[in-house]
Amino acid sequence: MKRPVLAAALSLAALFSITGHADSPVPPAEPGYEQQAANAAALLDKAVAAYREQGSAAYARFSRQGEFIDGDQYVYVVDENGYMLASGGPSAALIGRDISPLLEPELREAFNAALQQPESDQVSSAEYRWMNWNDGKVERKRVFYQKVDGKTFVVGYYLPRSSPAAAEALLDDAAKAIEEDAEAAIARINRLDPEFNRDDLYVFVVDMDSQSMVAHGYNRRLLNIHFPDLKSRDGQRVGEKILQAVNAGQERITYTWPNPLTQREEEKETLIRKVGHYLVAVGYYQAESQL
Q1: How many other CB atoms are found less than 10 A from the CB of residue 104?
Q2: What is the spatial distance between Cα 156 and Cα 160, in angstroms, rounded to a whole number?
């Protein structure tokens, strides 16, 4: 585990190594996160306006609890020399510090080059992983940023739910691994190998001959259960429904299940696939606007 200050610096480098969207004043949001994106864009606009009105005196407003903090959204500012000038979030520990020396060598060059980019009215976006101070979990974070007077102003929002495309990609990887070496793949899933455990996505595998759960990338207490008996908290016979679906040639099924990141019961769409005598599955949780 990296130290918090170093982790913050690495995240900033990842941010600045990504090019923004030249054809849009505000880059588009991921489906289901339109409101969070709108709030972040508005907060960024408000921060830039405050800086243009007050200059560096606005930094103190950004760095204290109040008008420039909206839930888990806050403003932070970095100058062209790599110094953190203001932050209303966890990266406040970096205020006044030169971030560049904290970076790993392969990231330092990209970070420093990005800080020298010309000023623009364009709002750009990037994505990286960061600690969400509301739930204490490291989650994907999308940020909007803009450069003004040599300073880069940033506001972001968290994306705790993975996309359908990410679920499809994980299912493809898991199915391929099961096909190549089922025993090794099952062992890796059960020891929570990061390749098969991504944000709120995880893999589970059922032996269709014995109808038992042989791998689960989140809850080991479900291992070896008789899969048709698996029920959701609201009493749905989820295991039975999944087996019926895959035997009928279906590729997905929807039910309610706990989200490992939010710890809430949420609607989950699970992608299912037969690989030999195994059922391999990966599910993603529906965005709140779709519930």
Answers
A1: 11
A2: 13
The answer to whether 5 and 102 have CB atoms below 8 angstroms apart is yes
Supply φ then ψ for residue 247, to 5 degrees.
Answer: -70, -25
Each residue's pLDDT tens digit, 28-54: 666 678 888 999 999 999 999 999 999
Torsion of CA 43, 46, 51, 57, to 10 degrees: -80
For residue 202, which of 129, 270, 251, 278 has the smallest C-alpha distance? 270
Work out the widest C-alpha separation in the chain, in whole angstroms: 70
CA dihedral 129, 133, 134, 140 (to 10 degrees): 0
> What are the tens digits of pLDDT across the range 211-257?
999 999 999 999 999 999 999 988 999 999 999 999 999 999 999 99
